[in-house]
Design goal:
Rossmann fold; D-amino Acid Aminotransferase, Chain A, domain 1; 3 domains; nine-stranded antiparallel β-sheet; 29% helix
């Protein structure tokens, strides 16, 4: 029997997952509100409607045996009638999409997080921050990603508005890492730990293997697996960590494929998308062995298109001829290039992380300079 899998969300994560599902022979239906989203432009079987549209949800779950999501920011309440078909579960979605609930879960199960405090609805963020201490970070409880919905508070004059929100201590970070766990069909697999370099709160480069000690890598993998077990995840769980003072702090949870996991398409024997596709089809996740070499994924934002004098469409990739280390360039097919908008990514392989990262930086600089040639 052909698996029929649904995806709530048609962005680049949904697109790459759909490709892995189709490779397994599954039929894929996507619910996506944006007619120009990557899935809408490249796949058949896309239902164009908002994620909370009752008729569209009924059609999606009626056509599919199992449904997942490409973002934890999809509305959870409309999914209640269909919770039995959702992977990961509705409870996992609700916990991970609400920062205060997520922190409460982590703290309640003994996982180390940064010092934090929930600001209740109607409570003054200024009053709460003065009591909490400066500097600190304020984050909205819903809808935040790529630095949206958060700000650094350095004193009372920076404080505006009312809760709900979460205040977090501002750490001096050594780096940030993430780890992806795949659980399904009675099997568990854990990917190697990724190191993530950010620029203006947006993922810039992912390094594999991460430049942290073997002990910290083992701790990150063990912690991610324990969190996935405590949550009862069936599917994927990405756990993001801060590294500060030689210790790991759990930052956020993402019960889905993750931007840092793009590197697995080339660096591992099976990718994060392959792992989730198999789980959704009722199969055990494969063992994600790390391929030889050092790997760096570089983000391609709309800024690169704009630097080339393009507002969308195809990117001029002629600079690639000077970079044999580049093993993948994947553009998402988005029509409009905007600053900080994720438009694609590339992967570099070299003998060392330092060389791979230097080549990744050089390639992106060359792409930006292409317009001047």
């Amino acid at each position: 029997m052909t698996p029929r899998i649904g995806i709530l969300g048609g962005g680049q994560l949904g697109l790459m997952l759909a490709e892995s599902l189709q490779h397994l022979g599954a039929d894929v239906t996507v619910l996506e509100k944006d007619p120009d989203a990557p899935c809408a432009r490249r796949l058949a079987g896309v239902l164009e409607a908002p994620y909370d549209d009752a008729a569209a949800l009924k059609a999606l779950f009626g056509q599919c045996t199992t449904v997942t999501f490409d973002s934890e920011n999809v509305p959870s309440e409309p999914l209640e009638p269909y919770s039995a078909q959702l992977k990961p579960s509705l409870e996992v979605l609700r916990t991970s999409q609400h920062r205060a609930l997520e922190k409460k879960f982590l703290e309640g199960h003994g996982f180390r997080t940064v010092r934090h405090q929930a600001v209740e609805a109607g409570q003054s963020i200024r009053d709460a921050a003065v009591a909490f201490g400066f500097p600190c970070i304020v984050k909205s409880v819903l809808g935040g990603y790529d630095g949206k919905g958060q700000a650094v508070l350095r004193g009372p004059d920076d404080c505006r508005g009312l809760g709900p929100a979460v205040l977090e201590e501002k750490l001096e970070l050594q780096t940030e890492v993430s780890c992806i766990v795949a659980r399904g069909a009675g099997h568990e697999q854990v990917f190697e730990v990724f190191e993530n370099l950010h620029h203006e709160h947006i993922l810039d480069f992912t390094l594999l293997p991460a430049r942290i000690s073997p002990e910290l890598q083992r701790t990150a993998k063990d912690t991610a697996l324990r969190i996935a077990r405590e949550l009862g995840v069936e599917g994927l769980l990405t756990v993001e960590f801060f590294v500060a003072g030689g210790q790991l702090y759990v930052n956020e949870l993402a019960p889905r494929t993750h931007n840092s996991g793009h590197v697995t398409r080339e660096a591992c024997s099976s990718s994060q998308f392959d792992a989730l596709a198999r789980i959704l089809c009722g199969l055990p996740p494969p063992v994600p062995r790390l391929n030889p070499g050092a790997w760096v994924m570089g983000q391609l934002l709309g800024d690169v298109w704009l630097a080339q004098g393009k507002d969308g469409g195809a990117l001029d990739l002629s600079a690639l001829r000077d970079f044999p280390e580049v093993v993948e360039v994947y553009t998402y097919g988005k029509l409009e290039a905007r600053p900080k908008r994720k438009m694609g990514h590339f992967v570099v392989r070299a003998d060392t992380i330092e060389v791979a990262l230097a080549k990744a930086r050089a390639l992106r600089a060359a792409l930006v300079a292409t317009a001047g040639r």
